[in-house]
Amino acid sequence: MIVVLLGPPGCGKGTQGERLAAALKVPKISTGDVIRAAIKAGTPLGIKAKSYYDRGDLVPDALIMDIIRETLAAPAQARGAILDGVVRTVPQAEGLAEVLTGLDRSLGLVLMFRIADEQLVGRLSSRVVCEACQSPFSGRNPGELHAECPKEPKGHLVRRKDDEPDAIRNRLTVYHAQTAPVLAWYRANNGPLKEIDALGTMDDVTGRMMRAAGLARSA
Ligand code: AMP
To answer: pTM for the whole thing?
Structure first.
């Protein structure tokens, strides 16, 4: 099954996506992780994406579509994939539909994580991530910056450049201007759209997600 996770930055879709990927036994693809790795390695993609990324702007659709085309055609994704952070614009939604048609595949689920902006600013500004394994940890105090990652002993906890206050504000503005219309696009095009409340404990949200994905029964 190919699943698109939609929602504002900080809504928890990365962490929940890991759980869904494990339950469905398919890989999770995060374009944000691909871009961070490319910036770190200084590849042509990283060089082109860096200034957009640092400001909290979206990188151009053409770069994202190259990543998606290449990844979805790879054998590792033959059974499906969880797409975390794609799609973020209407042209990406159209592009993904085209790529899937070309591969004779279809979308199984578009899952929207609903949460208010006020909840997100606090989450993002207290988030640190492991520089090695990219795992996010929320609600941390600044003293924990540079501490060892609980999951990957070789990694240290750092703040993402786009989790600085100005970039957070910009990412939310960008989300409302460019990504929120994707929801309307899926509605208008009969996308397999389901919406869940992303407020609550991680396990609460996981339960809602599993029910939406048909992997658990409704309470
Ligand atoms: P994320 O890790 O998903 O929060 O993404 C971090 C940053 O990577 C975004 O603010 C964008 O600069 C870039 N990015 C990731 N995915 C996309 C996408 N689908 N379209 C455009 N930019 C993206």
So the answer is: 0.87
